[in-house]
Amino acid sequence: MTTSPDSLSVLERRLGRLFVAGLSVSAAFLITGLVLYLASPGTGAGAWPLSVGLMILMATPLLRVVVSTIEYVRMREWFFVLTTLAVLAELSITMIYALLQR
Fold this sequence. Notes:
Number of helices: 3
Radius of gyration: 18 Å
Helix content: over 70%
Largest sheet: none
Distance between the termini: 44 Å
Shape: elongated
Structural class: mainly alpha
Number of domains: 1
Strand content: under 5%
């Protein structure tokens, strides 16, 4: 099936908003953690916000793949659905493997 330029521009806008939101929230947590850490070094005061900021930063590309998959299903672009599902599976396997290695 051929995708119209309108549906692709909608997808690009959604992905753009997702990136901006993810990076903005991540930056807010990272800045907060850095300020707390610098305000009282050695106490671990900024550890929680820094960890949350990094997790959000790492989750943003994963969410991009999920949103892309959903949008490609809606557009009935089955080749891209399978491709994004393969990428999602690879990312999931890598994350599970990394968690098990801790």
